[in-house]
Design brief:
Blueprint: H1 2-34, E1 38-42, E2 49-61, E3 73-85, E4 88-102, H2 109-114, E5 117-132, E6 145-157, E7 161-164, E8 167-170, E9 192-206, E10 210-221, H3 237-244, H4 246-252, E11 272-283, E12 288-292
Antiparallel strand pairs: 1-12, 2-3, 2-11, 3-4, 4-5, 5-6, 6-9, 7-8, 9-10, 10-11
Helix pairs in contact: 3-4
Length: 293
């Protein structure tokens, strides 16, 4: 009986093995004849890169304004992003906007009496790192959206100005706080300064080639002269008029009551500016195709 079972079992197994071997040999013959290919996709530097446009508003916080987003002005620029992987990106921005402050808009009588105002164009170049809360990739079926945080370092150029006798006047060359005279140990402040942009945002993919970004960003600066106001007190207008000219003296103290003993600024804090807006970015290339024979 045992011999008969073994013989029968072998009779069943051997044909099965022969059939599978025939299928295997046939499949390999088809591959050789028809060149059957298996294709995969691999990321390239261009497929990881994005370029786009930034639109939004810019505002300032400092001695002449303590309210976020007050006097927001139009701003715009360019953005470049390199996606290291789905959770981290490197980016660079070129941003242009304007900021302003005006004591006449304050509800505090002491500040209204000070009567200072300024406007300044801002040119910013910065770069840094984005960290996504969730995996994200433009055009990916699953990774369609994420929130992110941003930290950068940059430089910006400013030029605080004001209106005087109907004309726009640059404030930095005047030295309204006695810079460059016997009244102060300080030289005129630089118009190009460092900044540290920090922010939060959200991204959502728009098809296979683009995405929409919403962002709120703060810019910490290392200057207190974005608004041309730093010193706690006013300098002697008579001496300033002699050494820097009558325009410098007139714009140093514009208080409505004419007092030279009021508070001009706050020397213990630095100025900030903000950008809030959106950007649309586009992939610069597609993934490469790899063929395995």
């Amino acid at each position: 009986m045992e011999i008969q079972f073994i013989v029968n079992f072998g009779v069943l197994i051997i044909p099965t093995i022969e059939i599978n071997m025939q299928r295997f040999i046939l499949a390999n013959i088809l591959v050789l004849i028809f060149g059957l290919n298996v294709r995969a996709q691999r990321s390239t530097p261009l497929s990881r890169s994005e370029l786009g446009f930034i639109f939004g508003g810019m505002s300032y916080m400092g001695d002449l304004n303590l309210v976020p987003f007050k006097n927001t002005q139009l701003a715009g620029g360019l953005i470049f992003r390199y996606n290291v992987h789905s959770r981290m990106s490197l980016r660079a921005n070129l941003l242009y906007g304007n900021v302003k402050g005006n004591d006449a808009q304050s509800k505090i009588d002491l500040i209204k009496n000070r009567n200072l105002n300024f406007t300044s164009a801002i040119y910013e170049l910065s770069g840094g790192i984005e960290f996504n809360y969730f995996p994200f990739e433009i055009g990916h079926e699953r990774y369609k959206g994420t929130a992110y945080i941003l930290t950068e370092i940059g430089v910006f150029h400013m030029n605080p100005m004001t209106k005087y006798n109907g004309e726009s006047v640059a404030l930095q060359p005047l030295g309204t706080e006695g810079q460059g005279t016997s009244l102060s140990s300080h030289k005129n402040y630089g118009l190009t300064q460092l900044c540290i942009p920090i922010g939060v945002g959200a991204r959502i993919t728009l098809g296979k080639w683009a995405c929409l970004n919403l962002e709120l960003g703060l810019r910490k600066t290392f200057t207190d002269y974005l608004d041309d106001v730093h010193s706690d007190t006013y300098v002697d207008p008579t001496v300033l008029a002699v050494q820097s000219g009558p325009t410098a003296a007139a714009l140093s103290n514009r208080s409505l009551d004419g007092s030279r003993y009021g508070k001009r600024g706050t020397s213990t804090s630095k100025d900030w500016y903000l950008f809030t807006g959106f950007s649309i970015t586009f992939k610069l290339g597609k993934k490469s195709s790899c063929f395995y024979h």
